[in-house]
């Protein structure tokens, strides 16, 4: 079965377990999806209600990841037959090379799981570290793992605050791990398989140099058909990920635009500070004002070490 291919590792099995493809564990799938949608709506309500722009900027990335995860997995569920057929097609490539005793092709493809396993391990480890960090910061800053607003209730009042964070840690975090990270891991696996097919094609062209004319012509026709199959593979992969890639590009472009506006507005601080009635202030107040104006001469900026200044 396709889900047993070492190329996919635990990623496809994770989709099967959570019910995103196939008919298993539909209850878990519905629970995770419903909870993710409600959390996303509650987060948007919080942005509408809040007057603190700092919280909006801080939680924007979390909301974007949650929204992206929903888009990804809803697209997978809606087109699960296409995803399954695509992965079964990858399995058929493996089987075809085995039937033809193509040792060269199998040698190239058998190297791929080593790299996809590293990608999967890194992705899941990175996601786990991020989940733990989000939980720790939620406790230290007395906030929720994901922003949320509940009408008629104070979501920060105990014990509701603790219940929400516990519920998010056992539902939203696994949802993002299974929807966002597993999809990314599989996407990279599909790309690496395509790279492997191209490498096989190049190797086969190199092997043609020692053949006679008749054999060379026969091999060339075979390789042309082989190349057409690789093109179809790329087109199918594009059909499966194009919409999701576009949504992700738009989403994070909007985030960058918000950050850019935030930085531009920060440049207005010196003028706003200078506009106060500083002439009537005492020496100490003037000194503080001068320090503030001096520090705000340059825009706020986010550096590679994720620090703001």
UniProtKB/TrEMBL annotation:
It comes from the Eukaryota. The keyword Calcium does not apply. Keywords: Cell membrane, Membrane, Olfaction, Receptor, Sensory transduction, Transducer, Transmembrane, Transmembrane helix. GO terms for molecular function: odorant binding; olfactory receptor activity. It is a multi-pass membrane protein. The chain crosses the membrane at residues 30-48, 118-141, 175-198, 240-265. InterPro entries: 7tm6_olfct_rcpt. GO terms for biological process: signal transduction. It is found in: Cell membrane. One of its GO terms (cellular component) is plasma membrane. Its main location: membrane. Pfam families: 7tm_6. PANTHER family: ODORANT RECEPTOR, ODORANT RECEPTOR 30A-RELATED. This is Odorant receptor. It comes from Glossina palpalis gambiensis.
């Amino acid at each position: 079965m396709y889900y047993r291919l070492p190329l996919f590792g635990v990623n496809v099995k994770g989709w099967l377990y959570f019910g995103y493809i196939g008919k298993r564990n539909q209850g878990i799938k519905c629970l995770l999806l419903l909870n993710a949608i409600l959390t996303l709506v509650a987060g948007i309500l919080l942005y509408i209600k809040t007057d603190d722009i700092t919280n909006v900027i801080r939680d924007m990335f979390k909301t974007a990841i949650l929204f992206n995860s929903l888009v990804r997995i809803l697209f997978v569920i809606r087109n699960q037959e296409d995803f399954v057929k695509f992965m079964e097609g990858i399995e058929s490539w493996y089987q075809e090379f085995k039937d033809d005793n193509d040792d060269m092709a199998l040698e190239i493809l058998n190297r791929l799981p080593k790299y996809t396993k590293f990608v999967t391990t890194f992705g899941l480890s990175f996601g786990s570290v991020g989940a733990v960090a989000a939980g720790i910061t939620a406790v230290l800053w007395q906030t929720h793992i994901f922003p949320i607003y509940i009408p008629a209730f104070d979501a920060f009042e105990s014990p509701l605050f603790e219940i929400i964070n516990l519920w998010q840690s056992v539902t939203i975090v696994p949802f993002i791990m299974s929807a966002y990270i597993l999809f990314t891991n599989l996407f990279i696996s599909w790309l690496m398989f395509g790279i492997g097919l191209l490498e096989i094609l190049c190797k086969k062209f190199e092997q043609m140099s020692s053949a006679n004319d008749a054999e060379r012509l026969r091999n060339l026709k075979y390789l042309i058909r082989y190349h057409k199959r690789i093109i179809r593979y790329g087109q199918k992969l594009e059909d499966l990920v194009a919409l999701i890639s576009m949504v992700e590009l738009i989403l994070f472009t909007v985030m960058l635009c918000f950050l850019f506006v935030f930085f531009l507005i920060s440049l207005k601080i010196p003028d706003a500070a200078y506009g106060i009635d500083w002439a009537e202030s005492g020496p100490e107040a003037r000194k503080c004002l001068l320090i503030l104006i001096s520090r705000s001469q340059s825009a706020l900026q986010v550096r590679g070490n994720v620090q703001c200044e």
